[in-house]
Design brief:
214 residues, alpha+beta, five-stranded mixed beta sheet, 5 helices, 22% helix
Length: 214
């Protein structure tokens, strides 16, 4: 694995690694029992109560409001590689392609204005009744396939999977932690060269100092 792939994997580590189904702000499930050969497609859309719950939990990591969230999916039957706990063999399961689209209201780190931002995140996930481990948290574009360390499938219980923690983790990781209004720059930033910019204080230090001055 290259250094870039390692860094990408580290950046995609779960924000809430131990988030349980009960704790998740979304109580979304997907019924994959008797999945037809052509698979199923559809979407789930967060209602007002779910948007408030998402906003409340995400504010532990970000200052924002979640205005809308839609998850579209395409899940088909698939033969997948089980992990070593179930023999490292091929088992029957499902392969899902997901896309999250969220509209957010965040605070620009430069002007401190409230701005509208968008999140679009795609990822893939396998499912099987022989799963039972944490799902992968690497996006489809950055997924590194290691045949000796295959990611275990997410567990299905009586043909159903709990999507709440999975969707929440991907959404949280896809949010820009340093949103900027288009064209916004710190004072003197446009006149600095690349080397000088590297020596400038972190935006977080600027914000911290701003709060102390209030």
């Amino acid at each position: 694995m290259s250094d870039d792939q390692k860094n990408s994997h580290e950046q995609k580590a779960p924000v809430h690694d131990e988030l349980s189904v009960a704790e998740a702000p979304l109580k979304w499930t997907l019924n994959l029992k008797d999945l037809p050969n052509q698979g199923i497609t559809g979407e789930k859309r967060a209602d007002e109560a779910e948007l408030r719950a998402l906003t409340k939990m995400l504010n532990d990591e970000h200052e924002l409001d979640v205005k809308s969230l839609v998850c579209s999916y395409d899940v088909k039957p698939s033969t997948i590689t089980a992990d070593k706990d179930v023999g490292g063999c091929l088992i029957e399961g499902c392969l899902g392609h997901f896309e999250l689209q969220a509209a957010l209201r965040q605070t620009c780190i430069v002007s401190l204005e409230r701005i509208d931002t968008q999140v679009v995140e795609k990822f893939v996930q396998t499912f099987s009744s022989k799963g039972g481990h944490r799902p992968s948290v690497m996006s489809a574009e950055e997924e590194f396939v290691d045949p000796l360390a295959a990611e275990p499938p997410m567990k299905m219980i009586k043909g159903k999977v709990e999507l709440g923690p999975l969707i929440y983790q991907y959404l949280s990781m896809a949010i820009d932690a340093n949103p900027r209004k288009q064209g916004a720059q710190f004072e003197g930033e446009s006149a600095l060269g690349d080397d000088e910019k590297l020596q400038q204080p972190s935006p977080f230090v600027v914000l911290k100092n701003f709060k102390h001055k209030k």
